[in-house]
Amino acid sequence: THKFMSGLSKTSSSLVGAMDAVFTRNKIDEELYEELEDILIGADVGVDTTMEIVDRLRQEVKERRIKDPAELKPLMSEILVELLQGDDGETVVNVQEGALTIFLFVGVNGVGKTTTIGKLAHHYKQQGKKVLLAAGDTFRAGAIEQLEVWGERVGVDVIRHQAGSDPAAVMYDAVQAAKARGCDILLCDTAGRLQNKVNLMEELKKVHRVIGREVPDAPHESLLVLDATTGQNAMQQAKMFNDATNLTGIVLTKMDGTAKGGIALAIRRELEVPVKWIGLGEKMDDLQPFDAEQFVHALFG
Ligand code: GDP
Which residues does the annotation say bind GTP (predicted)? Predict the structure, then answer.
């Protein structure tokens, strides 16, 4: 918890201050609601999601006959946590006990996909699981080697082909290797080039199909990696990838480097995809499972 909070300190300090200023106003009026809207929009929550949040707040204020602005703070937290949590257990990562679990990672170049895979490999290895990596980005120069560096660092093997080869073939081999070696977790990297979106989306669909053909119900998680510092751009990316692969979760990286974490709320509401992990730095340990209450607390105090 401490790590989570300090990692998000940049996010918190500015937002918490602004929020507290609203809640110490002397009455609940239009001006207060407008100020709240400005803060949320400024924090990347997005216009539609902000409107919905503030409307719900107004409604609760009316129903509960709240007069004191100080009472808005816990109410606001309640609304935000509910929005982020979604249905019960939804943010829980889907790991099969005693069987091979396959995670597919998608996202544009530079968002932190390789780093996240390395961090998760470390996470599951520490839990005593047997982990394997698949170098599915055969397009970007250096992507395979970068994954191998993480593999060495963490102490897990990487299944790779030559640069430029068919990613679906890499995945096929990786799944066979994972089965043959009795692995618990297979983490699959994919390309993130945006020069030809249609082509990339077709490639991802094919990779998805190949994995699903080899292991029923796989991939068990299709995780979109998003850079929190890119704000509304992340939203556009989320929409694009959600159309191509059925996303089961989001990894929000670089939360240590932004004063705005509200994009998590916008994505959760607009795409109905939960955030499952938060990246808080470049090191192996800088990844935390997403916790809605902690997140809201760190964001808004
Ligand atoms: P990829 O192209 O999506 O595979 O992105 P990389 O994994 O290569 O990451 C791009 C850059 O972002 C690298 O310099 C990483 O060290 C950095 N990075 C990744 N995740 C985080 C994070 O959570 N916080 C910070 N500060 N940097 C990160």
Answer: 107-114, 189-193, 253-256
Contacts of 174 (CB under 8 A, 6+ apart): 132, 133, 134, 136, 159, 186, 188
Q: Ligand 1 centre and the CA of 16: distance in Å?
A: 26
pTM summary value? 0.92
Decide if pLDDT at 91 tops 80. Answer: no
pLDDT at 257: 80
Question: Could you report the predicted ipTM of this complex, rounded to two decimals?
Answer: 0.99
Instruction: Work out which ligand 1 atom sits closest to the CA atom of 137.
Output: 4
**Mutational pocket test of ligand 1: of 122, 250, 282, the residue with most ligand atoms within 8 Å of the beta carbon:** 282
- Beta strands across the sheet bearing 275-279: 157-159, 131-134, 185-188, 101-106, 221-227, 249-253, 275-279, 287-289
